Amino acid sequence: MPFYTFKLIDLGTIAAGNTTTGSWTADDNYTIHKIIVVEYSSTPVGLQFLTATLRVKEYTFTKDKVPLSLFSGHANQVPVLDIEFTKGDTFYYSVKNNHGSDSISAYLILELHK
């Protein structure tokens, strides 16, 4: 299953204490090899303040909430997931900003293999 493409999901700017949710439905058969998170706040706050619940169809692969900093760093530091993601399946996310006063802007990037 070689690399195929990246899918960028813009979480937007999440205000302190708020949560953003959303989804993306697969347009082809893929494997979600990795998820990479990048903060793009004008003044970086830190991904350690973002927690997330992530799932594909009915498979919630974060159990509860996990800090999104788990999915940041160099390519060899991000966990390999290899989750089957077939056409019509939906990837769901719920991300909460736990910072007391600052908003955080971030991207979720799905590394898709075929």
Description of the structure:
- The chain is an all-beta fold.
- The chain has a single domain, classed as Jelly Rolls.
- It has no helices and nine strands.
- Strands 2, 4, 5, 6 and 8 form a five-stranded antiparallel β-sheet that branches.
- The radius of gyration is 14 Å and the shape is globular.
- The protein starts with a strand and ends with a strand.
- The model has no long low-confidence stretch (mean pLDDT 96).
Task: Round the mean pLDDT to the nearest integer and report it.
Answer: 96
How many domains comprise the coordinates?
Answer: 1
Please give the alpha-carbon distance between the first and last residues.
5 Å
Query: What is Rg?
Result: 14 Å
- What's the CATH class, please? Mainly Beta
User: What is the percent of helical residues?
Assistant: under 10%
Residue fraction in strands: over 45%
Tell me what the CATH architecture is: Sandwich
The largest β sheet comes out as: 5 strands, antiparallel
Which regions are unreliable across 5 or more consecutive residues at pLDDT < 50?
none
Shape estimate = globular
Total strand segments = 9
Instruction: Specify the number of helices.
Output: 0
CATH topology: Jelly Rolls
